[in-house]
Write the structure tokens for this entry.
Amino acid sequence: MESAEYAEGRGARGDAGSRARARARAVRAVAAGSVGNLVEWYEFGVYGFLATVLADRFFTPAGGGAAEALVRTYAAFALAFFFRPLGAALFGTLGDRTGRRPVLIGVITLMTASTALIGLLPTYATAGAAAPWLLTLLRALQGLSAGGEFGGAVALMTESATPGRRGLYGAWQSFTVALGLLAGAGVATATATLLTPAQLAEWGWRLPFLLALPLGLVALWLRVGLDETPRAGAGEDGGPRGGAGVAAWGRGGGPPGDAGTGTRSRDGLAGGPPGGAGVGVRVVLTAVGRVMGWSAAGYTFLVVLPSYLQVALHADVRQALLATVPADLGFAAAILPAGLLSDRVGRRPVMLTGAVLVTALAVPLLRLLQDDGTSAAAKGAATAAAGAVVGLMAGPGPALLAEMFPARVRWTGLGLAYSLSNAVFSGCAGLIITEAVRRTGDADVPAYYAAAACAVSALVLARGPWRAGTRAGAPGGGRSGGASGSRRALRRGRSERCG
């Protein structure tokens, strides 16, 4: 008969082993989710950074000058965003019903193939009017895959998170946005620097798109080796996986309390009494309002800025691309600390701070870039600051969205909210800003656009109850344990506050 001390020691070793395995699974989930997101935003960044070159190769022969061609290029850019909600609904429904892993494998395959094929497209000079249509078709396929990617990757990472770390784990999704944009800016800048303008226009623009192929293969390898997340197996509400979808949940298909656990939602939105008609739509619209400032400001300062500098301020391609690097660095530097901070003080306070700062600082920061007397160092600091305040919204954003939806509709719900926000406020940013600057001649238009969207987001983030406490049944939050669960949370010192 084994001694009590031996049995206790063996149990402790078993618990330690279980925790180590859980951490290893969580790390692999973060890597698998993050790499796919990096590929997506690398390509989106490359398209934005090389928009003027693509306009010349695919759209200028259709008639009009460079500004009109750039508007057409951004129209194709925006079209992909309007396919995102469709991708979120399609892949989200499949992922909520069949599990995260198999659908995420399909998403990264589609994304990688459509991106690499852009690098093989014939230009207008070769294929005539078919060239812009082929580019637009591939952008639509990218939009479908991107719509499925975000919701699935965020669900994967937050459901795999260790307790008290959902904000940090979710922030990796946004962090890889920064890495993707940095990679896109770096590759595009290197291509523009190492090649002559004629070489860049003739064949050099293809290289950044073709580089997506090996990156996508790495992401595919990581996802093939994934385990399914525990909450995707049967749904953290204990019901069958998949359910009836966001619309049925909104008509009262869910029990009271978020995630179907009988507990109160951290923000009082995802749950509500049974039979609350339309609550699902209300939550999606509230989620869109909370992240629209992130979408608008992120694309304005991180993607549209190079083309704005070329068209409005007459910078050359290399100067414009170099100017975006500090913005991407500031964005990347702020994301993970913002996510970690949100695990301590709540998602909404951190995001609200970022939205208010963008509203207040957008115009002064942009005017620094317009001033010929401002030093290059000051302009770099201004773009870095712009990126950093966007990072305050991007860090907690994924976890905030994940916590607004129960597991059985999480991929669909958060994917729809994020995709709708991006379709309206990101995908149209380049089109709106470029056309408005062309028509009005007002160089402050990008700042007005970002500030207005962030002002609305600030109002939505500030609205509603502010509650504290660990939400049972939330992704990565462990089981609902009543008072004992609360005591465990207090002992950890990681009680997660509702933002």
Notes: The first helix runs from residue 4 to 49. Residues 46 and 184 are 5 Å apart (CA to CA).
